[in-house]
Amino acid sequence: MSNISRRNLFKTAGAGVLAFGSGAVLAQTSNPANPANPYVPQQWDESYDVVVVGGGGAGMAAALLAAQNGAKVVIIEKLLFAGGNTMAAQGQINAADPVRQPKQNIEDSPEKHAAQTLAAGDFRGDPARVKVLCDNAYSVITWLEGLGMEFKPTVHQMFGGLYPRAHSPAVPKGIGYTGVLSKALKKENVPFKTGFSVVEIYREQPWSGDVLGVKVQNSKGQVLNIEAKKGVVLASGGFSGNQYLRELHDPRTAGLGTDNLPGHTGDVMMAANRIGGYLIGMDFIQSTPGAPAGKKMKIILNTNVDGSIYVDKRGNRIVDEGARRDHIRDAVLGTPERYGYTVVDNNQYESYNSAVHDAVQRGIEINEAWTAPTIKELAVKMGVDPEGLQKTVDRYNNVIIKNKEDPDFHKAPRNLTRKIEKGPFWACYTGMTVHHTMGGLNTNTKAQVLDCTGTPIPRLYAAGEITGGIHGTNRVGGNALLDCFVFGRIAGENVAKEKARS
């Protein structure tokens, strides 16, 4: 074997097998200063203490905390603007609230929140991380308020939320969150590098050693190697926009669209997997109401579950409107048409914000939402059996709401408070779209990314939907933004404490 030892041969071959087995081989870069390590660039184009990948809620929270703890930070964003999916979110965030809930005679606690979160995910979530999530929920509310965020004075049970602890922002959707975070980041002089995608994550060796930085590229083909002296935080979202991965892990999503922004393709998650990050829960994919196949608009009239009903084309109610999101998905897709409708009265409609009203009005223009002075007239416009819908609404008002008992679908008595009785009445299509991917990178309570042995990958952190193992099989409505902010803050604070590499 000439002068090549058997040990060196196996060592070299082993490194190649590890890289190939993880899905791809990192591009080797000439590095004369360290010829034994071809996996890092010869020189860095830019250098920071902390590189945050993803400019949504989790990334912005991580960057802010890292900067406030003295780190020089940059945010890499694939899209041409900051805010990510947080900006497009419905905006509700869960927390056991010692101020608002007692005023509404709602008994709650972080322990109750954690127990319901674990049960809703069929106990497939990590209890330790769920405890951290729920224990830190109210502190996230007060932290956001300290940044200038405003919430409405009462809480409610939102769609898929399972309990009245959802806080609604005063500013519609997620714009309030991204607004206050952008302002805080500007104060800390944290730059956004938009329009750049992460191609690879650099580590000392393919599956060992410190994470050193990232390789990014824009649409014009410009490539930059960006050093992270303290570490990298991954917060680029899930893979709902990756049709192949989606349907590979859950074939039932075939034919469904997604209501997320186009950047959620899982590229960063897979780059982390190539350097040893372990993926868990990839089969758990959540769908929520949106436009049916062939329709244009996602219109939401079901945010508050106590004043809305889901019906099919025959006018029949099909599910407990306060049920788990996966149960509602199965009920909607279980209709012959694979879609249903949401029906509310004017009291419920007026309780929604201007963004909902604008969407409904646009939907009316293209015959995807409807309004009428009576239930039967509404049904005709919807293309639903008028007698069937009238019978359903009459039963809902005069039997179910009146008796505070739902023998049909067992809707909780706390959600049986509003009749559907004041015209004009409103309705929209309720199809299903892929909304949240519960699977992703395995992390711990410190937001460190773990390998297949449960060992933290040095200087690599993650937060938000790119992570897996928190929500189990089914995410509770209102827990997504909470997840982003709780673990984004933890990741940012912990990465800033790392000792900077020289």
Structure description:
By secondary structure, this protein is an alpha/beta fold. The protein is built from 16 helices and 19 strands. It has helices at 6-21, 57-68, 84-88, 100-103, 110-120, 127-135, 137-146, 175-187, 243-249, 267-274, 325-333, 346-351, 354-365, 375-382, 386-403, 480-496; strands spanning 46-53, 73-77, 93-94, 151-156, 166-169, 192-194, 196-205, 208-218, 223-234, 279-280, 285-290, 308-311, 340-344, 369-372, 425-437, 440-442, 448-450, 456-462, 467-468. Strands 1, 2, 6, 7, 8, 9, 17 and 18 form an eight-stranded mixed beta sheet that branches. Strands 11, 12, 13, 14 and 15 form a five-stranded antiparallel beta sheet that branches. Helix 2 (57-68) packs parallel to helix 8 and helix 14 (375-382) crosses helix 15 (386-403). It is elongated and about 75 Å long. 53% of the residues are buried. Mean pLDDT is 91; it is low at 1-33.
Outline of the structure:
The protein is α/β, with parallel strands linked by helices. It contains 16 helices and 19 strands.
